[in-house]
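Postdoc handover notes: sequence design on the structure in folder B. Input tokens:
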């Protein structure tokens, strides 16, 4: 538990802290440590924007309930931001710059000087323009500063009894749309419903339904592909076509984060 002590200690000389909390394990552990150190002077903020799935929102609420931390919901739509909607390689940067603006405004209202997020050391190895945007807004990452890898975060979450300790990593629903294809409410809705349908029919936890101009491509871990026999595929195809997809296919190469981060016109 020495690593947890390091994380709790990071907060102990702070007066009041706001945690940008998603439904995932990283920000959950940050919120837990902050609450251990600061009690009611730690506030969790979850952005209930249009690219956050209902499942993630429910997870965020559950985590805050388990920790006992106060949660504030930020409600706004990134779909009003043309820089985000056009979905180029800087989409995440524009999303996180907007989130940063909202967090800073909220922090001022609550007299909070420090805003933190759940970025860990493993995240720094990927292409993450969103992290750059948060840095530019002065948002800090205690997991990076105390040298946490993802595995260590999960270990801590499990040891303190957080239900998200084995929750698969997730990303916003817009990440299922290839760069260069516009983000719309219609696409986000069918992606979210599509992933729910696949999860229900297969009992697989980590699912991506990529939306290629209306064609669905399903990604799951490679060892899970065998579950998609003819019967399951027929059921999935029928249901996904009902919610607006024109065709359905399974990616034989399996799930890989950020696979469609290429411009596709």
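Designed sequence:
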């Amino acid at each position: 538990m020495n690593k947890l002590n390091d994380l709790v200690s990071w907060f102990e000389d702070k007066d009041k802290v706001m945690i940008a909390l998603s439904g995932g394990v990283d920000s959950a552990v940050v919120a837990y440590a902050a609450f251990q150190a600061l009690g009611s002077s730690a506030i969790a903020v979850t952005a209930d924007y249009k690219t956050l799935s209902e499942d993630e929102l429910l997870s965020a609420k559950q985590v805050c309930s388990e920790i006992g931390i106060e949660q504030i919901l930020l409600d706004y739509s990134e779909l009003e931001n043309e820089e985000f909607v056009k979905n180029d390689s800087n989409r995440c940067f524009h999303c996180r710059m907007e989130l940063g603006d909202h967090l800073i405004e909220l922090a001022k209202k609550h007299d909070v000087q420090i805003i933190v997020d759940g970025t860990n050391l493993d995240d720094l190895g990927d292409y993450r323009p969103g992290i750059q945007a948060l840095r530019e807004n002065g948002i800090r990452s205690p997991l990076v500063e105390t040298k946490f890898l993802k595995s260590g975060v999960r270990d801590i979450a499990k040891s303190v009894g957080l239900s998200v300790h084995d929750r698969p990593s997730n990303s916003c629903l817009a990440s299922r749309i290839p760069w260069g294809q516009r983000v719309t409410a219609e696409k986000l809705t069918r992606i979210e419903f599509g992933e729910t349908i696949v999860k229900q029919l297969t009992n697989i936890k980590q699912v991506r339904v990529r939306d290629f101009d209306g064609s669905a491509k399903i990604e799951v871990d490679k060892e899970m592909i065998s579950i998609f026999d003819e019967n399951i595929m027929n059921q999935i195809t029928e249901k996904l076509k009902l919610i607006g997809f024109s065709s359905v296919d399974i990616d034989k190469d399996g799930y890989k984060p950020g696979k469609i981060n290429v411009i596709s016109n």
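Context for whoever picks this up: The chain has a mean pLDDT of 92. Don't rerun without checking with the PI first.
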